[in-house]
Amino acid sequence: MNKIGLIVEREFTERVRKKSFIISTLLTPLLMIAMMVLPSVMMLKGNSDTKNVVVIDNSPEQFVGKQLTSGKTVSFNLLAPGETLGKARMQHKSEYGILVIGSDILDNPQNLQLVLNDASSMSVEENIQSQIQGILRTERLKRYNLENMDQILADANVRVNSLQTLKNNEQEDDENMEKTSTTASWLMGLILGMLLYFILIVYGQQVLQSVIDEKQTRVLDVMVTSCTPFELMMGKILGIAVVAALQIVIWAVLIIGASAFVMPLIMGGNNVEAALAAAQNVPDPEVLSMVGKFTDVSYLAGLFLELLLYIVGGFLFYASMYAAIGSAVDTPQDAAQFNGIIMMPVIISIMVMMSVMNDPNSNLVFWCSMIPFTSPIVMMARIPFGIPTWQVAVSLVVLYISFILMTWVAARIFRVGVFMHGKKPSWKDLGAWIKMK
Amino acid sequence: MDSILKIEHVSKTYTGHKALDDVSMEVPRGSIYGLLGPNGAGKTTLIRVVNHMTIPDCGKVWFEGHEITADDIYQIGYMPEERGLYKKMKVGEQAVFFARMRGMSRMQATRKLKEWFERLGLSEWWDKKVEDLSKGMAQKVQFIATVVHEPKLLIFDEPFSGFDPINQNLLKEEILGLRDRGATVIFSTHNMESVEEICDDITLINKSHNILSGSVEEIRRKAGGNTFQVLYNGTPEQFSAAIDGKADLIGGSEGVIGGYTQQKIHIPSDDDVRAVIGTLNESVNLRSFQEIIPSMNDIFIRAVNGTL
Considering the entire predicted model, what is its pTM? Predict the structure, then answer.
């Protein structure tokens, strides 16, 4: 145990002192903030470039063209009746495009053309299509000559977007039922699953590299006579895990701190909610429910603890698989052939996680959240839906035991693999190495 | 014999290649034991078997009177031929790390290591990174890391390779010093001169077999095969007549040096040596009479070629 501690200490101090650690610790949050900020900045300021569209309207009394409203995305310039496309094409070369509305547009909505002088733009096309669709729909309704037409139109424009979902607490009274939110739960699981995926890719590779380095620098001959391979593997995995934890905590602090202070500055006075509200003109009740849910401290603390156990367990288990691979090969190039087997369960997990939203208790999802290869990611997506505690407990125990077992296997492969330098192991060899005394 | 390590009939086969074939040897406590052999003979495999890094197919290894276990290897200090140190780590910290891995406390390790660094002229390198060291210095660091926890048994694989003569001597002195303080030292080498100088006993391995074992003195005398170099003043006829029946000439006379003729002879029986000297002394003017003891280098080459 003492030796594991020593190896952990060495791995940790050596890694934390490296320039690359300091640089990546400081640069990554900058990148992430940039990724967060850029879209909002673009959303707020990027579209100031309004596209000018010249409109040739051949419809009766130019009823379409007159009703087109200019906005941030497109501004319309209606030409006098009788203008021809040929002439307009010569005269308005510098405009974004020329919209030609056919004379029979009301009966033949297909008779619509946009001649572009510039690259096409999805948002401009959508804007024009939806505006014209609205105009035509209203005009067609008007043809029925109903009374109070305007009022009917306004009244018919209804949206259903609030379905309150509640968790049945199996008690008589209808009060005190916990609000649940499928979208919010799933979203949170997804984010955490992705986070784990990211951690695995970044730090799992470091475990792999570290084990390979041990062989390439030939320190292992000395190490193997000072400690058992199991201690060495365990020390390396835990050492890198501590580094990962430290780095993630620093990132979290930097990102939260930065977004609290920097974001409002960049938004130029507009606060974030306003930006969100501007983006979606109606507040999504799902979002509201999520916000409500996340202000419940005890719920959050419990959830956080469970998720933390899965992130740590998932990392350790996968790291031990990377260690096993590092033990079996001599160079990172050779490791590539085994990399697939690690990524396979991760990809399967993410696919299963997608299906959790449909049914968090299906057979597939249940078993995938018990098997250690998939359980960290799948269970993280399930937990926010409210999963029986025994399931979480069993799955966690299986995960942590698997981690110890896998480390042991890695140590076996390491011990034998080391002394068979230069030979790429086959699957058969690996099996034999594990069994070897 | 009080032996610290005993290897009995050890064999090891790697895929299609026999690395060790029925090798036995016994290392007396407190001795310096040379493990000799050409490249690829199986020395390193044997060392790994002793270190419990490689499990032999058959045969046994005894340490301190019991069959060696995984725990025993922590009482063995091992310096592998391919030296390995963490390149990015600072020299002093690394040495302390290895010392602590072998059970020393941080304080104890630091104190001892500073002494050793001082002795081998490395003090100023304590805070440098390993990658900044020259090869020789890195080897010294490795040597210190191997011996600092004062293990009972030390195994050095080619300890002198990569050192200049001055540092080779320095290292030799240190190895002798370790032996004098009670450690047993096994080292494998190609450097036969160092074997003559410091080894008490040797085992010579060739093509995975143990072909020669014993104390250096005995082996050299045996290999000499009772051959003597004689310098005398007289005629060859007188000389031949004097040794007739007791000794044989080896070749003809090897020329005259300062008026004295040089001649090699072979005396089959040890008992006859004095008699031969006596008769020669009477018949010719005897200048010198000296047993020819072959160098370890000769013995090595002859043993490997099968002409010993």
Answer: 0.72
